[in-house]
Amino acid sequence: GLTVLSAGRVSTAQPKVLTIKAFDKFFEPKDITLKAGKATIVISNAGKDFHNFFLRTPGDKYLGGIPGIDQIIRPGKSAEKTLDLDGPGEYLFYCGPHREEGMTGRIVVEK
Prior knowledge:
With 111 residues, the chain is an all-beta fold. Helices cover 0% and strands 50% of the residues.
């Protein structure tokens, strides 16, 4: 969000940085709570398998196709993307190839 300073200048807050490690078959952390606003999500592959990261909005709208995140992330590599998580609610995330094996999580966005 924007913060108005007393001199009438407008300051943009730096995005929060959220690092999520992808291990084989699980994310860490898997339950995250953030305040609404911009957040830079860094996905770091700490496993031996290839992983990716898909995100759904509180209304279950698919937010796949996030450049920099939804591609395959090789072991030892990472990807990041700044998103505007402006609406409060629960955002579900998962690794496409390993979702059925429990590689899921959630980001709870509060006002």
